[in-house]
Amino acid sequence: MSSASRLLGIVSLAMFGAVHPGIALAGQQTTLSPHAAQAVDCGGVQAEADRAFAATDYVRAATASSQLLELLRAGKETCSVDYAIALNNHALNLDKLRRGAEAEPFFIEALERKRAADGAQHPDVLVILHNYALMLEGLGRYSQAEPLFREELQLSFALNGPASSDALDSLSAYAVTLAQLVVRF
User: Fold this and answer.
1) pLDDT tens for each residue of 88-129
2) Does the domain formed by 82-185 have CATH 1.25.40.10?
3) Pick from 103, 126, 100, 104: which is nearest to 115 by CA?
4) What ranges do the domains of the chain cover?
5) SS (H, E, C) the chain
């Protein structure tokens, strides 16, 4: 089976459910158990969002990440996708489309959920902090971005050490924001 027909089948499953008479995988009618269909839905939709993001097709990525969030909200228990990460990724897609006002609530919820689930010292918290702070900085909201960049820097030092490339990247982002704050005063 070609990858294109497999993707078409996965997208069909995501849109129409476990049985769709017009599209079949490998030339046959496909009927999956509800749990198998849910797993394919989540994994296929996440893969589509990832491919679209990598191809810088942020409209397609945002559409797919929105669909993934809908699947996760519907309680797809067989889906192994981390909800907080899905929220972060959707917010990032919206931010890439210059829709920061729409993205912000997703970043906030992602940060709250990840901290609650895995603790404030988790590496994913670092990623979400960074993405959220960059979005705020891009909107010119430097005074709101600054404490997030500061927290990111402290967490990066704690997780990676002060000489790591991640810590240096965090320091650089923090310095840019601080410079913007100084210029504004």
Assistant:
1) 999 999 999 999 999 999 999 999 999 999 999 999 999 999
2) yes
3) 126
4) 82-185
5) CCHHHHHHHHHHHHHHCCCCCCCCECCECCCCCHHHHHHHHHHHHHHHHHHHHHCCCHHHHHHHHHHHHHHHHCCCCCCCCCHHHHHHHHHHHHHHCCCHHHHHHHHHHHHHHHHHHHCCCCHHHHHHHHHHHHHHHHCCCHHHHHHHHHHHHHHHHHHHCCCCHHHHHHHHHHHHHHHHHHHHC
